[in-house]
């Protein structure tokens, strides 16, 4: 039995997606992964680091764990979704990747976006089919170890502050400009 997704920081209950009555778009930062498999749980452990920050009221943190399709109903009320997860890009441990779901079709076939039974891409595809997929950005980190264990490896612990900086930059850009940062390819 999988644990239920858990909202870590929930604010702004009066917000309605797409509403013009609120000035700020609703943003959710979701950490996903299996905390029993060391670096596979980096997304969930990342939220602990991010929760220490003072975040705007329109930002919510969600511990998605390995919940899968149960996440669809939780993301339908947000305008922007930022996901942090382990990805296998056959790169150096700790390498950080920034991409949108649309980028997946042009990525090399050896690039694994999710280690979970039902990946986050399937969750986003279902939300899209239902007509309520938020604009989404994914920060993936190349894990070093997927062995049984509750601790992140030192290499992954060392890059989480940089991932936090990147996520905070995105939150600021969405808040100020209503979109993800434009990155030159």
From TrEMBL:
One of its GO terms (biological process) is protein processing. Signal peptide: none annotated. Keywords: Aspartyl protease, Hydrolase, Protease. The keyword Hydrolase applies. It holds the Pfam family HycI. The keyword tRNA processing does not apply. It comes from the Bacteria. One of its GO terms (molecular function) is enzyme activator activity. Gene3D superfamilies: HybD-like (3.40.50.1450). Belongs to the peptidase A31 family. This is Putative hydrogenase expression/formation protein. It comes from Desulfitobacterium hafniense DP7. The lineage of its organism: Bacteria, Bacillati, Bacillota, Clostridia, Eubacteriales.
